[in-house]
Write a structure and sequence with these properties.
This protein is an alpha/beta fold. The protein has 12 helices and 8 strands. It folds into 2 domains: about 160 residues, Rossmann fold; about 140 residues, Rossmann fold (3-Layer(aba) Sandwich), CATH 3.40.50.
Amino acid sequence: MSKRVIGILAMAYGTPSSVEEIEPYYTHIRRGRKPESAQLQELTERYEAIGGLSPLNEITAAQAAGLERTLNELDQDVQYRVYTGMKHAHPFIEETVQKMVEDGIEEAVGVVWAPHYSTMSIGTYIKSAEEAREKWGGPARISYVESWHLQPLFVESTAARVASALAQFPADESASVPVVFTAHSLPERIMQLGDPYPEQIEETGRAVTEQIGHHEWFTGWQSAGRTPEPWLGPDILDVIRTQHEQGVQALVVCPVGFVSDHLEVQYDIDIEAKQLADELGMKLVRVASPNDEPLFLKAVATAVLEQAKKG
């Protein structure tokens, strides 16, 4: 008797896989408007600064393979097949949904490689998946993991990585080193919509620091878009300046809104924020990304399994 098959639509942001793809990728992010030459050059230079291209595609593939393996280990009564769909690069979410339909997937769970829900982040991925499902006539049954920011194994995984970063300081100093939990900034108007995103970032930070008994922490923002409207702040660079003015000499940054090494982590934190901290004579330690760490993948798999049972 063959096993019941559940397809997992694992959605990620996507990144260019070659230098030639940077412009179409940037154009897609800008909803079809080509970037000006100066904008394109700046983005290209940022990729060059981290080694030429982002490792995001390779990490996302490793995460998908690890998630599929973990799901099938945790629940051996069902066959789980993980499909990757990207928001801004091939394979796009629509292409992946089409592939799932072609493969005969009738039952599915959608999950985004991002722990915190916002109508402007997770909400847009789900919208893309639903539009594709309508277009391709399936999968017939699909439900979505909307957030997993307090999933116990995710908190445990993050806490272990934060503790490891704090361990880089002498034992008598580490308790007083502030930990700033960052996430990708979004336009401030989400606050008027009652969006849970800022609160969920705060909840993750609180759960993580409670687990390791660390009392010096707060949240900050990074990677804001360049549009006229105000975005959530304070930005991490402003946080570093403020902490310096208050006499703080060391800072741990945990980009908890991101689950892999990519441009917003490797450039915005590892280069830009680190450079500012160096200029101010501060020590900045960045918490390692989870990438395809087994405990992290088990956290996501557990959230998916819980949703599969509900869905």
